[in-house]
Write a structure and sequence with these properties.
Structural class of chain A: mainly beta
Number of strands of chain B: 11
Largest sheet of chain B: 7 strands, mixed
Helix content of chain B: under 10%
Low-confidence stretches of chain A: none
Distance between the termini of chain B: 33 Å
Mean pLDDT of chain A: 94
Largest interface: A-B, 27 and 25 residues
Strand content of chain B: over 45%
Radius of gyration of chain B: 13 Å
Oligomer: heterodimer
Structural class of chain B: mainly beta
Chain lengths: 113, 113
Amino acid sequence: QQQVRQSPQSLTVWEGETAILNCSYEDSTFNYFPWYQQFPGEGPALLISIRSVSDKKEDGRFTIFFNKREKKLSLHITDSQPGDSATYFCAASAYQGGRALIFGTGTTVSVSP
Amino acid sequence: DPKIIQKPKYLVAVTGSEKILICEQYLGHNAMYWYRQSAKKPLEFMFSYSYQKLMDNQTASSRFQPQSSKKNHLDLQITALKPDDSATYFCASSQQGYQDTQYFGPGTRLLVL
């Protein structure tokens, strides 16, 4: 049973558009949600993260919106650039759940110039 | 200079053999991890170590054994290799505490024939 779900599986946007990536989770004890960006042949790299006490986190063109009641969050990439083409993973952890990050299946974003 | 080194980058093994995946981190972190990424499953947490002690183990099989000879080393020994073990194995590290940012290495891509 997948604890962290992501949609869509893949997404294509034009340069300058906003890409919206969705994530949902089941475990109500999850309280930390990092998003990782991964390019082919490389390891994942932290992009932005949010804790469950907040409903929004912004870092440049990347914004996380968090809805604790619905157990959903989304990553918005505004003014998408071709360099943003990558796979994005939503992850979650619970403070009492050890140090494990539970990853979703990822969303592959392609930005067309 | 790369802060997390994984060796080798690629590895081909025959079924039933044994291999060791090397990980060294130069971030001064006290916690290290192993994750696995395959075509069939998302990034999957395997182990976490803190100050060279095993903290979390979510790998059901005893064929996977982490080894920490130094504070900044966490190798992964895999015995009796199976084709299903084919995956990319990522080492990660973090400062120490729960929900500190985890930084990932470039991965070792293992193919078991």
